[in-house]
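Example 3.2
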Amino acid sequence: METLKALLSYGAAIIALPPLVIGLINKTKAFVGGRKGPPILQSFHDNLKLLRKSAVYGQTTGWVFKVGPVASLSAVLMAAALTPFFGAPLFSFNGDAVLFIFLLSLVHFTAVLAALDTGSSLEGMGASRAVSFSTLSDLALILVFANLAFQCGSLSLKDMFSPHDFKLMAGTLTIGSLFILTLAENSRIPIDDPQTHLELTMIHEVMTLDHGGPDLGFISYAAQLKLALMSALIARLMISHLTIQEFAPMFLFAFSIVAVLIGLIESSMARLRMNRAPQLLVAAACASALGLIVNFQ
């Protein structure tokens, strides 16, 4: 019975949370701009529409290009199985935080390989930028998890994001660093603009220009699920002071706050210049390192 409950909870989370976070971001941006905005579940309908179409492949692409979207989605789904949403994750073991970081890096790796397999210099440029930024973001994410692991004495996401007391300064630095990483890992403003059409400034979107149909649907859903995963981790940290009985009901509220905050940031500022974005990621890594130092005090 407990296994069935966990499976149903996991299924509901990976289906409902990705369109919810994207919908709240878009609704917030529309509200600030004085518009009605698309429905909350518009991204869900868009992905279903893409799945009903057929894929078109260029003559220069090979099997790597075809496998890339499926591999990316598979890696994100495996990371989702390790992520604590409303309660305990689907799978948990000591050291799964290391696997979680590896799976997120694998998403970048497969996307870059698929982009390079097209033989397009434009997509190669986007792949180069993605690798440069992911190197810095992975370092910051390792420091964030090291900070949490030191505080709870475990390398399991279940323990790291369970209800317990954080040092105020260390917890604030960790949440701030993880929030910056959420923006960077998911190509949101101020690192990248997911709705841009300026090809010379794109990072993530430029690597998907040759994808279409179900492949583009897999990539889109994987990106949305990845954003939901990292937003869920931030939400868990925000309510870490609550008891286990209060945890589940407050999770959706904290999750919505994260989505609205992302929408407000995207409504109030432009993306950074390309040479400024790495500085923000370095600042996130420094904040995580400072939080780790505070825990030693």
